[in-house]
Specification:
This protein has 397 residues and is of the alpha/beta class. The chain is built from 16 helices and 16 strands. The two termini are 20 Å apart.
Length: 397
């Protein structure tokens, strides 16, 4: 049996991680050129020329009027919640990265976790409607895994119930629903340019909106609230993006479509190779518009596959395939939220079930043909030796 848990020899000599795309030689060259200009100008932050150029290009790419670049997506979200002066409750999915919920707390909003659709794995608009109370001020949708959530249904709901509508587009750089790009849905959306995202600026993020006034307010807030050199009108913070991050962004932008093509090809290789392996369902990407294919997401059905996701995950780590359980156990299942905002058991049945089945695999492979074959070979070996693998898991808790 060729599994590392039995032989001690992992399928990969060095670890494969979910996340950071390989930075192309051309990107590195362009970055160095941009940085030469930064040192030439001796201007490193505070709305520099590279930040402004990046904002114009990101806005254009997403077909929106305004973009405000900031130091990360968590700060982007905190700033836009503040700029909208939201109060009371906000409805958001629990099945998301923890920052989506945390940022709401920084604006003293009460997070009300909504269940997801079992097909899209994103917020279910009907379930969101049932959670609206007189205290609700906004709905926060999250576009996950390079797909866009049901933004039109949420827009209709928000309009009917007079709520603000926001979107966490941390996973959805350059994605669309039909021909409608991410960025223009709701009142405002925000992107993450964290190093692990398909478009990264080391750390970074941005808000996208067609609302001039909202954009202006976010831009004051990200700079301590300064209206003038000596006059502060808002309670701001330091959310500024540096010129070095903007340089990285401008250097990477010309590669985004090629990165997406590479990811899509890798995704296709997984789909081909996984074909016929029972109990593993690859999550569809880009079926309703443009996807970015950065995340290889699958759900493992223990009955059909023979081994639970929990055990598959452990075995893959032994093979140096560092998969991630995005987003197990959901925000509501994390210790902090269990204590501070307890969700009654069984209120989020789809989130609970999916988070037990979900597994993300690396897409940033150096040699996709060879590596995908090897990863799926490991999954096949787990399935074929289900009994022994389960025994190993029991004996090695
Ligand atoms: C990455 C991510 C964030 C946080 O972004 P940062 O830039 O790291 O603050 C928030 N939400 C989602 C969906 C993300 O993927």
């Amino acid at each position: 049996m060729n599994l590392a848990i039995f032989t001690g020899r992992p399928a990969f000599p060095s670890p494969l991680y979910v996340g950071a795309p390989i930075v192309e030689a051309a990107t590195r060259r362009r970055f160095n050129n941009y940085m030469a200009g930064v040192f030439e100008r001796n201007y490193f932050t505070n709305n520099g020329p590279l930040v402004q150029e990046l904002e114009r290009k990101i806005a254009a790419l997403h077909g929106v009027k305004y973009c405000a670049a900031v130091c990360n997506a968590t700060i982007a979200q905190i700033l836009l919640l503040k700029a909208l002066d939201l109060k009371g409750e906000i409805i958001l999915p629990s099945f998301t990265f923890i920052a989506t919920a945390h940022a709401c707390l920084w604006q003293n909003l009460t997070p009300v976790f909504c269940d997801i659709s079992p097909t899209t794995l994103m917020i279910d608009p009907e379930k969101a409607e049932a959670l609206i109370t007189p205290r609700t001020s906004a709905i926060l949708g999250v576009h996950l895994f390079g797909n866009v959530c049901d933004a039109p249904a949420l827009a209709a709901l928000a309009q009917k119930r007079h709520l603000k509508l926001l979107f966490d587009a941390g996973h959805a750089f350059a994605c669309s629903l039909g021909d409608r790009s991410v960025g223009g849905f709701g009142n405002v959306e925000f992107l993450s340019f964290h190093a692990t995202k398909i478009f990264g600026t080391f750390e970074g993020g941005a808000t996208l909106t067609n609302d001039a006034e909202l954009d202006a307010r976010i831009k004051f807030l990200r700079n301590f609230g300064f209206k003038d050199y000596d006059d502060v009108e808002y309670m701001g913070l330091n959310g500024k993006m540096t010129e070095a991050s903007a340089a990285m962004g401008l250097a990477a932008l010309p590669e985004v479509s090629r990165r997406i093509e590479r990811c899509q090809r890798t995704y296709g290789l997984f789909r081909e190779r996984l074909n016929g392996l029972p109990g593993i369902r690859l999550h569809p990407v880009g079926e309703k518009g443009r996807g970015n294919f950065q995340y290889i997401v699958m759900q493992i059905d223990e009955k059909e596959f023979g081994v639970s996701r929990k055990v598959v995950y452990r075995v893959l780590w032994k093979e140096n395939v560092m998969g991630r359980r995005y987003f197990y156990p959901g925000c509501h299942g994390m210790a902090f939220y269990r204590a501070a905002y307890p969700t009654p058991p069984g209120r989020l049945p789809v989130t609970d079930a999916v988070s037990e089945r979900i597994l993300c695999l690396p897409s940033n492979l150096k040699n996709p043909d060879r590596d995908v074959a090897r990863i799926v070979g490991v999954l096949r070996a787990i399935h074929q030796n289900a009994k022994e693998v389960k025994q190993w898991a029991v004996q090695n808790p």
